[in-house]
Amino acid sequence: MFTGIVEELGEVVYLTDAGGDSAVIAVRGPVVTSDARHGDSISVNGVCLTVIDNVDGVFTADVMGESLRRSSLGVLTAGSQVNLERAATVGSRLGGHLVQGHVDGVGRVVAREPADEWEVLRFSLPSELSRYVVEKGSITVDGVSLTVMAVTADTFDVGLIPTTLKLTVLGAKSVGDPVNLEVDIIAKYVEKMLGERLS
């Protein structure tokens, strides 16, 4: 479980095809690797990955086919910057919202509207996720917990403060770039429970 508060910008060292329906990724991140052990979870652009090795500030993780299909990890190359966050611990502050690191789908940057000190970004919204996204609700974009400013059937807007623009990959995204989306897990549970009651 994560909170969507990015701890550092990491750098992909390599993403190797492991043969078949999987890959291995190596990421440099001195903050998140400072106490990382084999089996720990680290969010990479919103995807929960399990540490298999940690040497000199670089951790490696297996990426299964499901993660490659559901996320944008497969487009990363050596040198790509990624958002990194260690798993939350019991008693830690919940600065964002409850984030699982289980990506629901991929959206794309539709528009960027700069203001004096902040920016509004518009993202495409896959139709199967639209019902879970509400104005003033939470959504995770590339591992960043954000508040939805506006939503339509196929897009949503968020506002990014200078800190988010500077310290996450969202500051460098261009129109057309893919992003990982995770909707609020509570909305999915509510839908399932209500559906079972009504049927």
Automatic annotation (TrEMBL):
Gene3D superfamilies: 2.40.30.20. Lumazine-binding repeats lie at residues 1-97, 98-194. Pfam families: Lum_binding. This is Riboflavin synthase. Homotrimer. GO terms for molecular function: riboflavin synthase activity. Keywords: Repeat, Riboflavin biosynthesis, Transferase. The lineage of its organism: Bacteria, Bacillati, Actinomycetota, Actinomycetes, Micromonosporales. Pathway: Cofactor biosynthesis; riboflavin biosynthesis; riboflavin from 2-hydroxy-3-oxobutyl phosphate and 5-amino-6-(D-ribitylamino)uracil: step 2/2. It comes from the Bacteria. GO terms for biological process: riboflavin biosynthetic process. Catalyzes the dismutation of two molecules of 6,7-dimethyl-8-ribityllumazine, resulting in the formation of riboflavin and 5-amino-6-(D-ribitylamino)uracil. It catalyses: 2 6,7-dimethyl-8-(1-D-ribityl)lumazine + H(+) = 5-amino-6-(D-ribitylamino)uracil + riboflavin. Residues 1-97, 98-194 form the Lumazine-binding domain.
